[in-house]
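Re: Re: token formats

Sure, here are both.
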Amino acid sequence: MVALIMLIIGFFTAFVGSIAGIGGGTILVPSMLFLHNVSGSFEWATPQKIVGISVVVMIFTGLSSTIAYWKSKRIDYKTGLIFLVGCLPGGVFGSWFNQFVDTKTFSIAFGAIMIVISLLFFLPRPNRSENSKPTNWLYINRSFTLDQKTYHYQIHIIGGFLLAFFVGSLSGLFGIGGGSLMVPAMILLFGLPPHVATATSMFIIFFLSISSSSTHILLGHVPWLYTLCFIPGAWVGGTIGAKVNQRMNGKTVEWILRIILILIGVRLIWDGFG
């Protein structure tokens, strides 16, 4: 029964995470914390072990989603690699820092940030065109064609690195995947279309999870017997979630992301005061 519950959690974690490009740890972590508090069968699930499970499961969520998005040619690999340069060291730092930080205080602040970010989606965004882009060396100009429409956007190298390091640190610290910040940042700050942002985010999350999980493994935070119960559901959920995402329009993806960000924010604030 316990294995079946973990299999179901793994599926929904990856399914929702793949649709919104957020990885899914925001579902797995609170679900396991709730079960730890209400069921003796999950008394082994300490916060450190839950985060360890989450980052390992996200490897398979990210891989299955990336394969599905790769087949539909929705991943901007160059942009993803730029962010990975900051995310990978950030993930290692966050995983190591997990053992020292007062996560309750930080959780409240992070939850408030998530709610604010969700509200930023309602602000008007300027139209970006290829001719309006600066030629400054600090910017990398990108063009991406999706569904016969070409999008133009730019990545600020230093700003992108700092953002990615911060996102990677949060991923290692909370086991939430980092996509809850990375996706809205790519859409709002850098102008990526929602479908490309979610697909590229899952590509980033795959490699970021490998980095973050290695630190948690070395620290002994990963109970392998239980972790293996999540993986089959996560693989299937990630694949199906990516396919469902491809059938949605950009506005629908944005609305799903808004709702999830608000739920994440409320949950983190609740955990911080709890």
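Second one below.
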Amino acid sequence: MSDPIYAIGDIHGQRDWLEDLLQRVDRDGGPGAQLVLLGDLVDRGPDSRGVIDLLIAEAAAGRNMTVLAGNHDVMFRRFLADATVHDANIKSGLPWPHRRLGGLATLQSYGVDVDERRPMAEIHADTLSAVPKAHGAFLAGLPYWLETEDKLFVHAGIVPGVALEDQRIDDLIWIRDAFYDAAQDLPWLVVHGHTALEAPRHFGPRIDLDSGAGYGRMPTAARIEGHAAWVLEADGPRPLPVEPEAG
């Protein structure tokens, strides 16, 4: 069996919890353990800036780590690029700098005044001044998937029947039902986040590690060996049992 791979689900601006999870990975797998973060580093939580600071520092220190892009990271990146606040994938039509989506919390973590009476152009200009260039470069450089021999790590999922290199970015970071309905036909175990659950779940062909950090719940770190998984709890690893897909 190949060496285990560790994965961390959506963080959503929770730096303190991320520090805790990184320590759990180190205790279980040692300092050289391969680690994948599944995206959604920012928004909703109190310290998106701190999350990115921490990950930049961990990468500089040589951690064996791949950080993937999630839809919230891409929305932040697009706002930095050209003040884009709307995304056609958001069915509610709400703009990214809205409390429900969490963009306001991200801007506040950088010290930006987000008073709703201020024009968005002013908020954008202040954001460009407040966000370190290294943070923008970090976000711009995030890959969208990591493929191993028998596993695929991705934020949301993929369109079945489409080669990885031909997948649309929007699908990789936003897809849900079309992927879930056909996951059993894919050639990998797919490890993803994006859809917040009360707790991580192993559905057989896919594992969802988004345990709801965006809604104030502890994010999840897991060890993946073959197609088996263990959740790294505070007191040690717990097997994540396979359960049938609903419906």
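Residues 13 and 46 are 6 Å apart (CA to CA). The mean pLDDT is 96.
- S.
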